[in-house]
Amino acid sequence: LVRPSMVAAIVTNLQEGGLLCLSGIRPAQVDALKGAYGGSIEWLDDQYAELSADETSNCIESYGFDCGRWARLIGRKRVGGGDSSFIEQMSELAVS
User: Which residues does residue 72 pair with via DSSP β-bridges, in sequence order?
Assistant: First the structure.
């Protein structure tokens, strides 16, 4: 989700004001993801959540698996995000 080509594909196909939900992320990856999407996404910190399997019913951990903690990020694409400059920036990152 942080490769420049993937970030560009997601951001340019998201309508201004549209919501983006990224889930199945390790909490340690959250800052890197937020950085990868730069100023194009306004992250809704009040919607951030973390959960581990043992906090759910019928969890897989009861079978002996340790799945760890996972996070969910929700953000909204900024209005006037400047898709053309964003694409140029991502293109430069892809070849550097």
Answer: 23, 49
Residue given tokens 């490769």 in the structure block: 3
Q: Three-state DSSP class for 14?
A: coil
Is the full-model pTM beyond 0.90? no
Strand partners, 77: 41
- Phi and psi torsions of 43, nearest 5°: -75, 135
Q: Report whether 74 contacts 20 (CB < 8 A).
A: yes
pLDDT at 68: 80
Q: Which string of DSSP letters, residue by residue, matches 38-86?
A: GGGEEE-GGG-EEEEGGGSTT-GGGGT----EEEEEEEEEPTT--HHHH
Instruction: Return the bridge partners of 23, or none.
Output: 72
Nearest 5 degrees, angle CA 75-CA 80-CA 86?
A: 80
